[in-house]
Amino acid sequence: MATEVAHNSNGFTNGMNGESNGLTTMLTKPCKTVPSTSADFGKKIRQTDFILDPNAVHLNHGAYGATPKPIMEEQFRLMQVRDSNPELFIRYRYKDMYYKSVERVANFVGSNPKNLVIVDNATAAMNAVIKSLKFKAGDKILVGDQSYKTVKRLAKFTSNEFEGVEVVSMTLPLPLSSSDDLVRAFEKAIDANPGIKVAVIDHINAPTGIIFPVHQIIALCRERGILSLIDGAHTPGHIPLQLDELGADFYAGEL
C-alpha cells in the first residue's frame, strides 16, 4: 500500500533529564483529519479548503491532485515539530508516529498492519514490488493495454534487465457488456502466454475509470500460479476496500 500520511502523536518526556523537551505542546495538538467545511462540496469547498487558481477549472485530480489546506497546515506543523529538535524527533518519535499511521491506514483499507508499508506513492510501491521479484528466462509480465504508462514502462524496463523475460498485454475489450468480459480477457491473455510470473491488474483503470472485477481476476491468477499485483492508485476513498479479504499478493494504492 502506497500513500503519504501525516499522523499526530502524544507528547513525551526527555528521558535524560526528566523535563519536557518542548515538543509536547505541538505533538499533542489535535490533528486535522477532515476538511474544515465537512461535507460541503463543489464551489464552497474549493474556496475554503484549497488554494486552486480561481481562473482555471481543474479536472485532473488523478495525476496531479491539489492538497487541501487543512492537510497542508498539518504537514507544515509537523515540519516545525521535526525541525524544532531534529535529533529527538528522528531518533525517538518518528518510528512511533509511523507505526501509528500504519495502523490508521490499515484500519481504513481493511488490512493487518503487519502487511502494510507506507511509501511515497503508488508508482514507488509498484517499483518496490516488481524490482524485488526474481525473474528468469521464460518468465512473462502481464499488463493491460490501458494500464498506466509508467507501469508499462516499469514492466518494459524489467524485461530489459533480465534476459529472456517478456512483457505481454491484455487488450481491454471495449465496449464492455459486463464485468465477465474483463475476466474472459485476462483468461484469454493467460492462456495465450504460458509462463506469466506476475499479472499487473488495475483496480480502477486510469484512462477509462472502469472498475475491474479484481476478486475474480485474483482468483484466476491464483488458480494458474500467477502472482497478482493490483494497481489501486485511484481506489482508496472511491470504493470501500478490504485488502485482506481481497487476497491479492500485492496491492499498491494512494490516499
Written description of the protein model:
By secondary structure, the protein is α/β, with parallel strands linked by helices. The chain is 40% helix and 11% strand. It has helices spanning 24-28, 43-49, 69-84, 86-109, 122-130, 149-161, 180-192, 214-223, 243-246; strands spanning 140-144, 166-170, 196-202, 227-232, 250-253. A 5-stranded parallel β-sheet has the order 2-1-3-4-5, with helices on both faces. α9 (243-246) links the parallel β4 (227-232) and β5. The termini are close together. The relative contact order is 0.13.
Strand order of the largest sheet: 2-1-3-4-5
Report the helical percentage.
25-40%
Order of helices and strands: HHHHHEHEHEHEHE
Q: DSSP helix count?
A: 9
The description of the largest β-sheet is: 5 strands, parallel
What's the SSE blueprint?
Elements: H1 24-28, H2 43-49, H3 69-84, H4 86-109, H5 122-130, E1 140-144, H6 149-161, E2 166-170, H7 180-192, E3 196-202, H8 214-223, E4 227-232, H9 243-246, E5 250-253
Parallel strand pairs: 1-2, 1-3, 3-4, 4-5
Concise summary:
40% of the residues lie in helices and 11% in strands.
Key structural traits:
255 residues; five-stranded parallel sheet; 9 helices
